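Tutorial handout. Part one gives the primary structure; part two gives the three-dimensional structure as tokens.
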Amino acid sequence: MAQFGHLASGAAWSTAGKALQLALSLLALAVIARIVGPHAYGIFALGWLVVGLFEVVVSSAPTDTLIQRNTISRGHLNATFWATLLMGLLIAAGIWAGADLADHWLDGGALLGAILPARAAALPLLALAVAPTAILLRDSRFKAVAGAETVASIISNLAGVALAVAGTGIWSLVGMELVRVAVLCIALFAITRWRPGLAMRPAHLRELLAFNASTWGSWGLGYLSSQLPRFVLAASLGAQAVGFYALAQRLFDQVKNIVMIPAYQVVQAGVARAQHDTGTTRRLTEGTLRVTGVVACPLFLGIAALAPLLVPAVFGESWKEAVSVVQIIMLLGVLASMSVVQAAVIRGMGKPHWEILYELAVLVATAVFLLLSLPWGLDAAAAAVVLGSLVTAPINARFVRDLTGLSVGMQLGAVFNAGLASLLMAGGVWLVSLLLAPAIPAPLLLPLLVVVGAFLYWALLKWSMPVAARIIQDVAVALARRDIGAVRATLGGLTG
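Part two.
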């Protein structure tokens, strides 16, 4: 269990960094969203449809490939660096040349065509960061990665707010993203002190491509599934509807990044190192599912309960139509507390082609439900996304069972108690908000409801998961005392 404790400690550092990034990002988003409004934000989200897919090609998939391999040489790192950089430059040039065609195809107007070349400039920068990111994650230096990401988040959010206040409109969002990837790239190279070279052979690239093809496929299909609603909404309801949906998805992604991305990173790295030890991978998978369920479920369902007060208070009255969309999309969080860990296990065990089958099923199911939802508007489209993930959830669970021996029932059981406690907590918060909203202004009521929700969830966990409640209590006390050693000791004692 020492390995799980080490990984849990690493995840804690990463999660702390992500939590700080979330706070900063929400603050910046609140300012920028009020200034640019739903329509401009929707145009920016349409730009992500084009650039985000290629980000998978030059960043996400190559990083996964380097992490998954049992051993990597300097030649593998050099080959990845130069190949991804070349792809990033070529794709950015292609987007630049085809910007007018893209804005016509997505019906985004001249503004979309104007921002696409600048958005595409992030791709070569992301390609540069692949090798140093993989080096740090392979060495379990999660604190270093969290530090680099946090610095990039602070600087980029300050830049975005400054640009928005200066009246640059949608360009504040573009500038914020460019600053983020540039600072992140510089920080990662400074930390790793790794520098690319020319020492590589064609065999290095061939070895990486064999795995990369499947990884690109699974990441690409996952991206298409997540972005398909934006395309459908743009074609049927226009850019403003895309803006409402994109805000909900942004909140979901930000919360997911706090818990699920650190869990994904440490589990993938841990499973890749121990993939021939079924007992270890099974314990690691079950333990992580329990931890992510305990932490993720209350965050997602709590935001769903607070959305009627949270969205207009933070982002402004012009965003009120996004409330119900936020509530629906947050239901994905319960599924994500399992699916992200399952994906990490499957890819870490060297089976990305299995993940392709799952992502293809999600894409088809989401497309079918979206087509059926078209006559019913924005909320129905959001519900279609949730249903698409729900009906395909058993696929990954079966894959994990085959790889680790952890049954589907045990995987569900790992998050069931936390999910139930979170649902009851969210219901209680919602009822309290209904009672107090007429008497207390939203800026005062929101922090009160957060406290009520935290206490209610802790009380429910003491009844259903007493060990988890005690760990949360010990970590909270240690953090209040600023006793990092006690936090490490508590997390190091986790046994799943």
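Part three, for discussion. Residues 2-68 form the longest helix (67 residues). Confidence is low (pLDDT under 50) at residues 1-7, 491-496.
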